[in-house]
Design brief:
homotetramer; 212 residues; Arc Repressor Mutant, subunit A; 10 helices; DNA-binding; Homeodomain-like_sf (chains A, B, C, D); DNA-binding (chains A, B, C, D); HTH-type_TetR-like_transc_reg (chains A, B, C, D); TetR/AcrR family transcriptional regulator (chains A, B, C, D); HTH_TetR (chains A, B, C, D)
DNA sequence: AATGAATGAGCTTTCATTCAT
DNA sequence: CATGAATGAAAGCTCATTCAT
């Protein structure tokens, strides 16, 4: 009944899952196609049949991880927030959720940027494009909320977005390291203190740290 | 009187310089010991005699790059600053200077963090330690200046330092990308606009972006 | 009445045709069973079902090509010739005709001899036998005509046959190269100059090149 | 004392000898670089260091075999012959000598022509050129002797050269097969009957097989 | 009977490491 | 001490062959 398809989606998924995990854990070069095949419980040959070569497999893993987030992503998290702080907190909480849910995908995307230099130029462009698109999406989602703010003279929405970008980016890395060091954490609630800490800091960035 | 060292310091230095440059440019795996030996104008055998294996060589290059900055570093840049903004600007200007002066060392240290995962656990710890030490140094240098500030209730020096850390870190990456894209830039003056932009942003972080 | 054969003759024929063509064009190793199956519009599995393995397929292709000529061959071409020259010309013209009609089969047989060494000893013997049989047939066909000649003292029919064999063999290769280089040639008439040239040469061999 | 050279001529020679022998015996594809390395008593890696890749190794083997004959070749064999028959016999005797002395080189060159189709186009051109050069040399050597002959009307030197070419070529193959089947033959004298047979045939070609 | 997805042995090639000189 | 020729384990990839469907 289950006709064998030219590409078995279950197998392809297993390969991608294995690729995502191993590339994320070990990086591009130290990960061997053999390993991925073994972890996916398929033969080496099949990996090459489905993905042509190691580089394409890496790119496919990256795309799959990205797609994963793109399909899962809940824009309302950004859109239904009362103010900037609430939005960032929602977004961060959401990102942590994703990180808990899809840790390998998350890690792969986080490290992909630096592995670029090890890929052929053509693939680098592809990775680059993906990251730009992601960044654009985030900006697009945040823009309407920031637009409502009353900025001090000399301050602009763009400035604030850039600064917030640096902070959240740094914070996401912090959280990632934290989660890597505490594998027992499985629920978003356990991360609430960190989230609140970020909230406080962002609030202070909005209103200023310094008296007077 | 001085015991003749079995190691030729000039050759060792050349090896490290070559290693720093090539590891920085290409990453760990794609850099071959052959290349390093050739660029250092020594034999491959000598590289292994001095550094045991490729991994140790990488670690030595990292340490050397770090040392380079540690020796060169001018603490007065941090200490002789009137206020926080001035200090950060001075520090950033100084970092850009270093980046222009020692681009390979700078890039190596910037990418080292992500190459960690490709090293054996023992080496990872070493790299980790180096980064922590660096971070601690920066904090130590900044602490006295931040201590003078009058913080709003709920805000702490540690909070501000952390936030500033994220921002400067993000900004350093931005500058690095900028410099990589504009190799014609050789003087710190040409980077002044970016530095001023960072200053503005940090000022706004101190006092707040939002009206009221 | 006629037992239903488990083998579909049409499919088998397609496989053999494809095998003949591809083996002739590319040689044994560079030709993949995949290609043959695809060109024959059957599945790879069927190829193995019908021919056991690649080597047997090659042998079958060879046999089929040989059979092709054996069935088609018109003995009257040899038998109804007035004299030796006429016979050789008739035979050569006939061979060119076959070459134009069945180029793949022709090329396969021409190259088979040298591909022998790449086959297991048992198959080599088979190929060898086929070539000997072919040679014997040619001799057999020529013998009655040569028997009528009046040989000089010291000359024998066998000598002449052998010499003619070398010449026609060399000439067939020449023609094959010529046809490969001129794919626009499709009619025997276009080859007439070469045939006449061969005739002249054979005539000279019979009567001698040298004055006196 | 024996300084290790960047290319050890003894090793290189061993590799080439092994390559020549194995490529000659087995053909291009069925010969594995592993085998050649083993037979040459060097590591696989060294073969690639010296010859870049398998194809280059094949070409090097071919060139070496060709060179072997070119350096060894004794033109006087052709030049100091009283008449055509004597020349051909001398040349053939000489070729058999070479074949006995360098059987692998001889076989490699004999089979190279047909292995062409298995090589990349660029290498095909190289092989082609080598064969043309060889053919040209033979023609050049024979021309002066043939020029002295008195040809019958309708016969030309070129015709005779071509015919002789076919015959000697066919005969060389015959001899090669004979030697392959009789490995106990090591001296040229043992081949004398075949040589005399060829002489007889060529004489008959000159003067004609047929009475009147 | 027919398919073609799946397998894995085996190939070429690379490069960290060794060691004779 | 210094060299770089030599090594061979291990990588990516191919393709004849198998076998579940």
């Amino acid at each position: 009944m289950t006709k064998r398809l030219p590409e078995d989606p279950a197998k392809k998924a297993r390969m991608l899952t294995a690729a995502i995990q191993l590339f994320a854990e070990q990086g591009y070069e130290p990960t061997h196609v053999d390993q991925i095949a073994q972890q996916a419980a398929v033969s080496k040959g099949l990996v090459f049949k489905y993905f042509t070569n190691k580089e394409q497999l890496y790119l496919a893993a990256l795309t799959a991880a990205n797609q994963q987030f793109m399909t899962v992503i809940d824009r309302t998290v950004w859109q239904n927030s009362a103010d900037l702080s609430a939005m960032i907190i929602n977004a961060t909480r959401y990102k942590i959720q994703l990180q808990l849910q899809f840790p390998a995908e998350f890690n792969l995307l986080m490290t992909a940027f630096v592995h670029q230099q090890q890929l052929p130029a053509s693939s680098q462009a592809y990775v680059q494009k993906m990251f730009v698109a992601n960044h654009d999406l985030t900006s697009e989602l945040m823009t309407p909320v920031v637009a409502l703010l009353q900025f001090k003279p000399g301050a602009t929405a763009a400035d604030l977005l850039e600064v917030i970008g640096y902070i959240t980016n740094g914070y996401i890395h912090k959280i990632q390291r934290y989660l890597a060091a505490h594998p027992e954490i499985t629920k978003i609630e356990q991360m609430e203190p960190l989230i609140q800490d970020l909230a406080t800091k962002l609030k202070l960035v909005e209103s200023g740290f310094i008296q007077g």
